[in-house]
Amino acid sequence: MKHPVCPKCKSEKIALIFYGYPENMEEYLQGIKDGTIAPGGCCVGDDDSKWFCNSCRHEFGNFFVTLEELNQK
After folding, report:
1. Burial of 53 by CB count in 10 Å (0-12 exposed, 13-18 middle, 19+ buried)?
2. What DSSP assignment string belongs to 34-54?
3. DSSP labels, 2-32
4. What is the rounded CA–CA span in Å between residue 49 and residue 16?
5. Where are the domains of the chain?
6. pLDDT for position 45
7. d(CA 30, CA 72)
8. What is the pLDDT of residue 3?
9. 28-49: b or e for each residue (b if 16 or more CB lie within 10 Å)?
10. Tens-digit pLDDT profile for the chain (73 aa)?
11. DSSP 8-state symbol, 65
12. Does residue 16 contact residue 3 with C-beta atoms inside 8 Å?
């Protein structure tokens, strides 16, 4: 999965925000430690973010993919 650049600070240190209960807690905790995963809570809403910048803590990108985005792939 290609991670975007932070629109606020231009950092490439981006983590995927993980929502829900992890199946493998060891991998989940290691991802948080490594900065590849950011905890997002148990529920995801319509306006929740997909990405977390480890440099400036900015959250961005819509978690849900739109039909337009699917058609571009």
Report:
1. buried
2. HTSEEE--S---TT-EEEEET
3. PPPPPTTT----EEEEE-S--S-HHHHHHHH
4. 9
5. 1-55
6. 86
7. 33
8. 78
9. eeebeeeebbbebeeebeeebe
10. 577 999 999 999 999 999 999 999 999 999 999 999 999 999 888 889 999 999 999 999 988 876 566 566 5
11. P
12. yes
Give 17's strand partners. Answer: 38
pLDDT of amino acid 32? 97
Q: What is the DSSP letter of 55?
A: T
pTM tops 0.85, yes or no: no
Q: Exposed, middle or buried by CB within 10 Å (0-12, 13-18, 19+), for 26?
A: exposed
DSSP 8-class letter at 66:
P
Separation of CA 45 from chain center: 14
Predicted pLDDT of residue 70: 59
Q: How many residues does the chain have?
A: 73
